[in-house]
Amino acid sequence: MARIFHNKANESVTKAKHSLEIDEDEKMHLIGWKIQRIGWALMGLFFILGAIGLFGSGFISNRSIRNNNIIVEYEHFGRYEANTKIVIRFPSDTLSIISIPQLYLNQIKLQQVLPEPKEIKLEKGNYIMFFPGLSEGRLTLYLLPQTTGPVQSTIYINDHPYSINHFIYP
Amino acid sequence: MNPVLRGAAIYIFLLIIFRIMGKRSLSETTTFDFILLLIVSEVTQQALVGEDNSLTAAFVLIITLVTLDLFFSFLKDHFKIFGKLVEGTPLVVVEKGKPLKERMKKSRVEDEDIMEAARLNFGLERMEQIKYAVLEKDGSISIIPFERDGKLTS
Q1: How far apart are CA B33 and CA B58, in angstroms?
Q2: Is the ipTM of this complex over 0.85?
Q3: Which 3 state secondary structure label does DSSP give A106?
């Protein structure tokens, strides 16, 4: 009758009778298989969460703030030195000024603004961009995170505050 | 990120991932496994180097990886349990011509994998000619055929 090897959880595997000089360690195999299956389940979960945007670029990462007919869309989850953006949608000819704290830009590098501002100035720790007569209805700030962890700030569009919250993965 | 920490994190992450994947995925026996290892190596290279193409970063990373390898070898030599945890142990999957199905299922080894190894190494035709088949630590399958006329079958 084949000898069955049990572990504490009463899982079993048939013990092989052989003359081979190998350190088989059935107990380790049983533990290993269990850990393996837990690992597979975790990887599957990461796969699904990654696909839906837990690590950025997906619907659970998308945030949208609406205030005074202006909509600010951005990604809450980002990754270190991976491109991200803030998109500002507005009725034609209503957006004139955007103010971003320099502290925010120290953590999230502003790479490009499209369309480009007509004038830029630094005042009281804020990076201020002027867009007189902007008719496009959409403005994009292209960003590159330079830090990891939570990043919070408030940007001002036409003097109205919009709170931006990121979590940047390493 | 500090290149030492980056290199160490990736090394340990890959160690854990490949251990979870199972031994068979390491042996490159299928096209899927081969493609996976090819792509993983490309992704790993990007993650290790990032935007830093300096000679210094390359030297630091290489030294980090080699040091970690030496360190884990040291741990394996001095703590047997560590070696078993990281690399696993061999597993008999065929005993005297009979495949041990439960073990094969848990290790994701098919009859065909065993017969392939048997044909390649010894030109064997049937499972009954195999005395023992062992799934080794590296995911390969070693075959011990039954002796015939005092000599191993070849």
Answers
A1: 28
A2: no
A3: helix
**What is the percent of chain B with per-residue pLDDT over 70, rounded to a whole number?**
92
Per DSSP, B23 falls in state: G
The tokens of A129 are what?
């961009």
Q: Chain A residue with minimal CA distance to B5?
A: A170
Cross-chain CB nearest to A17 (options B90, B95, B107): B95
Distance CA A76, CA A138 (A): 20
Residue A89 burial class via C-beta count within 10 angstroms: exposed 0-12, middle 13-18, buried 19 and up: middle
Residues B44-58: tens digit of each pLDDT? 888 888 777 888 888
Interface mutation vs chain A, best among B91, B96, B138, B147, most A CBs within 10 Å: B91
Query: What's the angle, vertex CA B13, arms to CA B10 and CA B14, rounded to 5?
Result: 85
DSSP-H helix ranges across chain B: 3-21, 31-49, 55-78, 80-87, 101-107, 111-122
**pTM for the structure as a whole:** 0.76
Q: pLDDT digit string (tens) for A124-146?
A: 999 999 998 888 789 999 999 99
Cis peptide before A115 (omega within 30 of 0): yes
Q: What are the tens digits of pLDDT across the range B90-146?
A: 999 999 999 999 999 988 899 999 999 999 989 999 999 999 999 998 889 999 998
Phi, psi of B66 (to 5 degrees): -65, -40
Beta-carbon pairs below 8 A across chains A and B? 56
